[in-house]
Amino acid sequence: MQITIQNITPNFFTPASSEVWSKNFELLPNSKYLIKAVSGSGKSSFFNFLYGLNNRYSGSIIFEKTTIASFSENDWTSLRREKISIVFQGLRLFPELTALENIQLKNTLTNHKSETEILAMLAQLDVDQLAHKKAETLSYGQQQRVAIVRALCQPFKILLLDEPFSHIDQTQITNAVNLVSQEVEQNKATLIIASLGDTYNINYTKILLL
Ligand SMILES: Nc1ncnc2c1ncn2[C@@H]1O[C@H](COP(=O)(O)OP(=O)(O)OP(=O)(O)O)[C@@H](O)[C@H]1O
User: Ligand 1 centroid vs 40 CA: distance in angstroms?
Assistant: First the structure.
């Protein structure tokens, strides 16, 4: 899904000059982007704008030909079920549910993956043995890997990952990047990763400094 950004600026803080704020640019389907940000420069705010959780900005964000400011809550619900997926910086797993229950809660909305496929993805990130453990008992790096798998358990045209690998070791980052890349290509999606510095060895269409 093509995303057109037209001159957006947050209303609740004054951002420093960057390649995102107050600029016009497009994010293309089948492409990978890195938002390389300084802490506090607004990358989580930018993701919240794209995910429809915050509309306190001037300018326009356009999905294909429609400005997202015109979407109703119902529009957002169906977009978040079938078109746009996210790993939040804070993950937002349900602590009392197991890793697998967290994933299935999302997956059952569209029955996107079978349980066998979900367990295979968890195995690819070396957390399959934790499938039946409560999320709150997992380390942050293990929770990150569960949240990544959860985000892949729906159809999507846009995948937003906010510092998704910050607590994961290099071997597992490589495995996670491979899994994410494979799913992004299958979905012909736009991948947008935010990071404070690491580039994760991904061949980006463009790196934007924020
Ligand atoms: N609800 C809010 N009300 C007022 N100011 C806010 C709000 N949310 C964020 N801010 C401010 O907006 C700026 C950007 O915050 P944001 O969380 O988007 O940054 P970030 O780049 O993701 O930071 P980090 O990398 O440290 O997580 C900060 O100055 C923050 O204090």
Answer: 5
